[in-house]
Amino acid sequence: MRYFFTASLVVASLAGHIYGHRQAAPSPHDEGRVSYQRKSLGFGPEHPHAVFRSSQYQIKTNGFTPGDASMDPFEVAGRFVEDVLMSEYPLDSAFRFRSDSYTDKNTGVSHFYVRQLINGLEVTDGDMNINIKDGMVISYGNSFYNGPIPDPFTNPSAASSPLQKSCDQVIQTLKTFRRPPVVDSEQVIMGQVPASDDSTHMLEHIAESTCSLIPLPESFASDDMADFRPALLAFMMNATPDPKVASDILSNFESHKEAMEVTPTNHFTPGETTMTFTVGNVPDAVSPVKAKLAYTQILNEAGDNTELHLVWKFEVEMQDNWYETSVSASAPHNIISVVDWASDAYAPIPKKPQVPVASYSVFKWGVNDPECGNRTLEKENFDALASPVGWHSVPFSNDPSLKGVRLRTKDFYRNTSTTWGNNVFAQENWEGQNAFINNYRPDAGDSKEFHFEYDPQETDKSGALDEAQAYINATVAQLFYTTNLVHDLYYRYGFDEVSGNFQQYNFGRGGAENDAVIANAQDGSGFNNANFMTPPDGQNGRMRMYLWNTALPYRDGDLEAGIVIHELSHGLSTRLTGGPANSGCLGWGESGGMGEGWGDFLATTIRSSKVYSDFAMGSWAANRANGIRNYPYSLDEEINPSTYKTLDKPGYWGVHAVGEVWAEILWVVSQGLIKKHGFSTELFPPTPLEDGTVPTGDFYRTDKKGPLVPKHGNSLMVQLVLNGMKLQACRPSFFDARDAIIQADQVLTGGENFCTLWDGFAARGLGVDATVVNRTPWGGGIRTNGYTKPIACEEPETPKEPKSPKHKAL
Fold first, then answer.
1. Does the annotation list 566 as a binding residue?
2. Rounded to two decimals, what is the model's pTM?
3. Tell me, what is one Gene Ontology molecular-function annotation carried by this entry (predicted)?
4. Helix or strand (DSSP H, E) at 96
5. Which of 317, 567, 590, 664 is catalytic?
6. How many CA atoms does the CB half-sphere of 240 hold within 13 Å?
């Protein structure tokens, strides 16, 4: 067989995104806040040959269709990939199973992640995800390269950037728009300006950031493909938000190249198929860069398929970004793709430590912001499944603050009285730096009563920052409380250790650990923003929350639950899509937009109640009734007219605008399920029993054997959305994500909601006849709304009753 794997890893384990890309320029009185626009790159080639197949009629193999439920799913997956390769791909193509493959405990679906290998090197965007249940391949996504194999260590031609054609289109479109008037800095909220200027603003943002990449001077390029330093500097020159750093790289190119400290990393196991390197002294990087040689697919001249290009793949952590990028290994070292990360056996439940349960004075779960309710006293949520030892305990061996410290204790857990635990480390970050361990966080003492005052008073601009910082204890306690509840909620819906959740210690349940969320409150690097960086499983997620200078007193984004939930949902969708060890699946276009949309949808669902209401995002923090999106989320098409076709508008080329459309579609679909199944006032499943089993209560259906099925429409929709993320392919389109949700219902309920789901998708143009052609690296293209549902869901015409015959009088 032509594949490589570490069987023990696979069997044992049977994983950034940005809320706003622009920051408002701070007031002269806001000392310590950096005055700049946060830069974020995200683009890559289209893959016209990529597919997601979720119908048995579409899953075609070379005569092999396993149907034996007793067959090892790993064997099924291996045979399936072998079969696909033999029938569709060059003989020299091989593959390896990634070690982050796993089986979902609730649904019984095994999710396998496969990476293509050619000439012994990874194809960075040659991905296959295979979903198996009861011995059957129920769906798969595939972007394997299927063209001719190039000679080793050669490039057929200089790779052009996939952006050029699209950038020409952006620049041409800009000429048809007037330039927007100068807007006061405090109107620039989360990457938006007044609605009349949205389209021009977005186009200018693309033209100014992504379309103005600086080419590397010919004299600096290297003819030696083994020397990746020029390629890395070419990327850093474009990635840095500081023009002085970019200028210095150009002016002192050789000095920077020679100063780099390159260290090879050899791997004993076959999990890594090629040598990797770590690189120190890289300008504007905050930690050593990871580098390895690989292939990337680029569109051919005809634009109907891809060809392979040899690249250096880099992982670069910067102050405000965490990039995964592919840069051509040959001159002129063009940037081919870039994603900004800024988604075992079950162990017995360990005994929780004998410590007091913490309490917090907070805006409780469901109260979105200070205008929606008052603060109340809430208790630490001991969930025996999601957080077995509570929120304030972490093993000594997994505590980053004790790294290198010689311990003199036999205790396993360290119990803390601060906002420091297994799921999240929460603290202030007034300096806006990456360091967090020694930052300030409130200490509630032995009582663990996090009861802190929050009563900000109106001040003039000069005292506004001090006034906000005076309530840092309440702010950090709120951020810690909300983040832990989001962790626990998502865990109960299936975002667990093997699927890549964020925990320092995984309780022997599999997955990579030491990756709790680093949650920074009142981040000092800017205003009016929030962001979340999601590296692969086993590396800490990092969330930055900001103050908003949109009102006096300043408003604190940490206190608006919708913003916090949106950010944490980036970690959810990035780790679940394409597997926990692959953070490059939601980087741009429709897939990047859905990363934003899932966050909006889940935040809106969590705050909703039994009495229907429309909701806007970020209203309180931004001090705008309609929030920071173009429209509130609403069933009323006059309030929110978004359809699939809306993505064609120039102002919808950015991921946030794309995400609005996806979130609106999900909102409409969800309301259809609620109409059918009713509404649960409690989104949390029942508390587990002492033995770890989960009672059905009024939450789960009792007429279903097998997977636990939420009985109400809103809880069922959350479950289907998360299960759909696990099923869908890397770099999914709207169509792929739609089909994955529909298949998730097939797995969970046997397809009972097939037509209800299609009704919702078709209502906003995502029916079976929806189409798109000529997509760009940002998701542009020409779309056609489709309002047609599958034949099985079309209502039959009511036959007309025959008219009674007229009788003639005799």
1. yes
2. 0.83
3. zinc ion binding
4. strand 93-97
5. 567
6. 20
